[in-house]
Design brief:
about 130 residues; alpha+beta; two-stranded antiparallel ribbon
Length: about 130
């Protein structure tokens, strides 16, 4: 019966006998690992950048609260999905109760078409209270 010491000696002798093939295999493994590690770092950095851009750059925040159904029918009937002032106060109180240091900023996004009768152009606007930002 062959024991572990004999198997290791046999493997080492085989690696040393075929030095060029061993070197090419080790270089290939190192290159593959390096490529995978670089790609993993690149994708992680990309996702972190996208997250930071959404949260801080576009001021979307970590949590967006809207009425149920906004995603499905909000474009057709946007006025149905607006919060009243009282609802905004209640939501703000709940957010502050759950997380006292959290920032809360109501916002209203509007887009459409403006025309002077001859020329039309697209507009995109977003309303926020400067004091809340």
């Amino acid at each position: 019966m062959i024991n572990a010491r004999h198997m290791l000696a046999f493997a080492a002798r085989n690696l040393l006998r075929n030095r060029r093939r061993t070197l090419v295999t080790l270089v290939s493994i190192a290159f593959g690992f390096t490529a995978l590690a670089l790609f993993a770092g690149y994708t992680k950095n990309t996702y972190l950048g996208l997250r930071d851009q959404a949260v801080y750059g576009e001021l979307l925040g970590h949590l967006t609260i809207s009425r149920k159904g906004l995603a499905e029918e909000g474009r057709l009937y946007p006025e149905k999905y607006l919060f009243t002032a009282e609802e905004i106060q209640r939501i703000s109180a709940k957010v502050k109760e759950a997380e006292p240091q959290a920032k809360f900023a109501p916002r209203l996004a509007v887009n459409g078409l403006i025309s002077n009768g001859r020329v039309s152009t697209i507009f995109i606007a977003e309303g926020v209270a400067p004091g809340d930002m």
